[in-house]
Design a protein that fits this description.
The chain is an alpha+beta fold. It contains eight helices and eight strands; from the N terminus they run E-E-E-E-E-H-H-H-H-E-E-H-E-H-H-H. Zinc ion binds next to helix 5.
Length: 254
């Protein structure tokens, strides 16, 4: 069967113990997409992995890939970036964890998506850097970008039904229809009634070409509504396995 050695950057989405000395990892790699892999001996004190393979870090791995297998073998791993501030702050930690969970649940194995990889490594780096009030808007920005990279960009500027620009104090949002609806179409199509300002804030985030800390607006008053819109959208499009447990936790804390 075909097998090959690949060297790629990756984010550790999940890491758990395997036996006495090894690790079982779920990685989102830049070149190969999601992989499950074992790192033999990774928990030994003098392991060749040198403690690099920790949850929510960016690493460079060398992996022996075999097409017929769904569990691959890592032969090397070096730390590229750790995010210590993320681990020391409950909100940053919950959102970083939710970003990893979201990528894990919304992707299948061995389906590379470099844009999605950039979204993930970008949000972890951003959560490490931004000021407190920008933390949650940055995560919303990530959710919008991840949806786009996965091929289901929400429509936030025009009514998904009649195509008129979305204006007014109250509008509708429907994951099934793919985004915002005007007052007239929304009443008929169903979905959730939302403030026009919430849709416009998301449209503004979506229009940002690249993440820049100063471009992310501070969180507005209707945070619960914004959270719920994005979450419902991603869970709807992600299918039956996309329930995001990390966000349950965050909502309970807020
Ligand atoms: Zn309409």
């Amino acid at each position: 069967m075909p097998s090959r050695i690949v060297k790629t950057r990756a984010v550790v989405l999940r890491a758990r113990r395997l036996g006495e000395t090894s690790k079982l990892l779920t990685l989102y790699t830049e070149d190969e997409g999601k992989l499950r892999a074992t790192a033999k001996g990774a928990r030994k004190p003098k392991s060749r992995f040198g403690g690099a393979l920790e949850w929510m870090t960016e690493v460079q791995v060398v992996c022996y890939l075999r097409d017929e297998r769904d569990l691959q073998t890592l032969s090397d791993g070096d730390a590229l970036r750790a995010f210590p501030r993320l681990l020391g702050d409950l909100e940053r930690l919950s959102l970083g964890s939710a970003a990893c969970e979201l990528i894990d649940r919304l992707t299948v194995e061995r389906d590379p998506n470099r844009r999605l990889y950039r979204c993930l490594s970008g949000v972890l780096a951003g959560l490490e850097e931004v000021q407190g009030p920008q933390v949650e808007p940055l995560f919303w920005y990530f959710q919008l970008r991840a949806a786009e990279a996965l091929g289901y960009r929400p429509e936030l500027d025009h009514c998904t039904s009649c195509r008129l620009p979305l204006a007014g104090e109250w509008l509708w949002f429907s994951p099934a229809m793919g985004g915002g609806l005007c007052a007239r179409c929304g009443t008929a199509a169903g979905g959730i009634r939302v403030a026009g300002d919430s849709l416009r804030l998301l449209a503004g985030l979506q229009a940002l070409g690249a993440y820049q800390p100063e471009a992310i607006p501070p969180a507005p008053p209707r945070r619960g509504e914004l959270r719920s819109m994005l979450r419902r959208f991603l869970e709807y499009h992600g299918g039956q396995h996309s329930h995001l447990k990390s966000l349950d936790f965050l909502e309970a804390v807020k």
